[in-house]
Write a structure and sequence with these properties.
Order of helices and strands: EEHEEEEHEEE
Structural class: mainly beta
Low-confidence stretches: none
Largest sheet: 9 strands, antiparallel
Number of strands: 9
Shape: globular
Distance between the termini: 55 Å
Mean pLDDT: 92
Number of helices: 2
Helix content: 10-25%
Length: 126
């Protein structure tokens, strides 16, 4: 029998790790949610210098937590329609979210349970 004791399962779904910013909100793809481990809470961090967003899995005790995924939700997709978050991103990047949709690929860092989105590399759909 093959020894699999050092192996761990990989969680994945079809699609890419993406964040989409538009007038209707900030959406996190199913692939990104699954890769983060479908946490109930995350911390959303922004680097104004690097113009990047980090989403980090956290727990209910974290004072900076944001509700991420409702337990028992069948489709692991997340959408925040938060004016502050949309405004911060739009102002930082000088984006017109009333007319355009911005899609950013994410990079996952499993050792930190964090997904990074480099806003400078956004694809714009008019």
């Amino acid at each position: 029998m093959v020894d699999l004791s050092t192996f761990k399962p990989i969680n994945f779904v079809a699609g890419k790790n993406t964040m989409t910013v538009s007038k209707t909100g900030v959406a996190i793809s199913q692939a990104a949610v699954v890769q983060l481990g479908k946490p109930e809470f995350v911390k959303v961090l922004i680097s104004y210098d690097e113009r990047s967003i980090a989403i980090m899995a956290t727990d209910a005790k974290d004072p900076n937590k944001v509700k991420f995924l409702n337990k028992g939700k069948k489709t692991p997709a997340v959408r925040w329609n938060n004016a502050t978050l949309k405004g911060e991103i739009a102002n930082l990047m000088k984006w017109d979210i009333s007319k355009n949709v911005y899609k950013i690929d994410g990079k996952y860092y499993p050792q930190d349970s964090v997904m990074m989105f480099d806003l400078k590399k956004a694809n714009v759909n008019h």
